[in-house]
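Quick check before the chapter quiz. The format below is the same one you will see on the exam, so make sure you can read both the input and the output lines.
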Amino acid sequence: MAQLSVAEELARFGPRAPGTRPPTRAEAVAYCRRLARSHYENFTVASWLLPRRLRPHFYAVYAYCRWADDLADETAGADESLALLDWWQQQLERCYAGQAEHPVFVALTATIREFSIPKEPFARLLAAFRQDQRVARYATPEAVLSYCQNSANPVGHLVLYLGRCHDEHRSKLSDDVCTGLQLINFCQDVARDWDKGRVYLPQSTLARAGYTEAMFERRVCNEPFRRAMREEVDRAEKYLRAGQRLTEQVPQALKLDVGLFVAGGLAVVRAIRDRDYDVWHARPTVSKPRQLRLLAGCWWRSVRITGRETG
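Here is the expected output.
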């Protein structure tokens, strides 16, 4: 199905859209499913690998995140994005008050009730998207990690709620995985983020390596850039490996997807290193054959884990 532009979606369902009756739950679920399937990502949270009973709920969560991300990054500028994010926050509040109207929130209402999901992780994501409109540079690795607490980690918490396995221990492991994924994405997307006026590589790392803003402007891949990237890629890998045990500690329904998240992140780590850290001239990606090998490996590991648990 063709993917609609953000402007087209806003014309249909945005704050200035013509008033219509709220969709039925079936219509809302179908909308979220179409939205998820029309966006390509390496390992979408709405994976077809999930049990059928869980897919509508993952589609609803995905649709929430997709809309928020698009409102933050695919509009006319920071002022419009902030206004639209405020509107999305209002829709979230109405959802929790039992007054959902937007198709995403109509679908999400049933998910929130069935899995007892609190408002906090949804709201924290919006805090990160608002921060993107106001902050374009991060002084230290600690500042980037603080951003990840809202930009990435709530997604992992939502997945744990959908697996009915959210607790303090698993949340810590999930935070490690999600932070690692966010950090490696920052390394992977240096050029894309620069085009948006943002630099997520810590300024202290860049300064220590000797990489300047002028070099950013010329998109120079030199030894200072490689030193800075090496440090940040290593940091991302550390977090991914710290959270890797989460795969063994979630229900069977989530094992394969969680395993793929981790394996996919580690595959991007390898892809960046294989390019000798040159992310300026081509974005490192995981090839289709490599994705299939990752899938096979994760499937086999999930079978072995299940065998140990039931043996």
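If your answer matched, good. The chain has 15 helices and no strands.
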